[in-house]
Design a protein that fits this description.
Layout (H helix, E strand, L loop, with lengths): L1 H9 L1 H4 L3 E6 L2 H4 L9 H10 L3 E6 L6 H7 L5 H4 L5 H9 L3 H12 L6 E3 L2 E4 L3 E3 L6 H10 L9 H9 L2 E2 L3 H10 L2 H6 L22 E7 L10 E7 L5 E6 L5 H16 L4 E4 L3 H4 L1 H10 L2 E4 L9 H10 L1
Parallel strand pairs: 1-2, 5-6, 7-10, 10-11
Antiparallel strand pairs: 3-4, 4-5, 7-8, 8-9
Amino acid sequence: MTTIIHCLRVWRHYLLGARFIVKTDNIATSYFQSQKKLSPKQARWQDFLAEFDYVLEYRPGKANVVADALSRKAELESISTVLGDLPTGIKEGLGHDPVPKELVKLAEQGKTRQFWLEDGLLYTQGRRIYVPKWEELRKDLIRECHDTKWVAHSGQKCTRALLESSYFWPQIRDQVELYVKTCLVCQQDKVENKQPAGLLEPLPTSEHPWDSITLDFISSLPKSDGFGSIMVVIDWFSKYGTFIPCPKDCTAEEAARLFFKNVVKYWGLPKHIVSDRDPHFTRRLWTELFKFLGSELHFSTSFHPQTDGQTERVNSLLE
């Protein structure tokens, strides 16, 4: 009866003013309209049902097949039971994939308890079938658990749970994740649930030369005179650039020494320094040094090089 009440509340705007029949395989529910003694909850139900023009009709469970089909949890027959050409393909693939081929030998010799043979198929814990790396077997099974209409392009967890309930192979998680991530239908039709990106705002313009600078490294360059990287320093106000050759394995201490020798010595200490999250700039020595000297260090947001776009553009020209 609770189900009937719920459905009438959901479809109330469709059913008001129309006569309809409620068919149920619960014989006790079919007598609800003529029941004389009611509990407080049943009385509230009767008060709600008084709005509708309906008839409760009993139908035996054997004849109520439509409701039974809709009320049961859907199971994939092709996943729950191995049918068709799939067993043949799996059996054939076991002889071509070296990993299950070795497991079959161990199972035949009784040297493993995790795997066993049954009807030519290799099973593991949970009575899951080992799927060899052969032709498109694995990809076809992932497609069956993700693309078909009854699963409706579910996410990674649901797809993997459905697949792992009956099948097994090494790195199944990674393959399912890659397949779902690259599914064209999911990318085109699914709604983005992530929080939208914040408003991008330009950095404030400095009022004097060398008040604010941007700093970056170009590394992995061919060695020349013992140097394998370049420290790029750009003045935010005048766009003047200073390029300092550095050793390929330049440490934070060495970077600080070169910065003072080639920048601070000529232009003084800047008030603001904008850089990416390179280990040279995130080391405690570097941050504590400039904090002590009164300069503010600003790091760009991860995976957003446009924060330090001025230096990135100079880097591309310099390279």
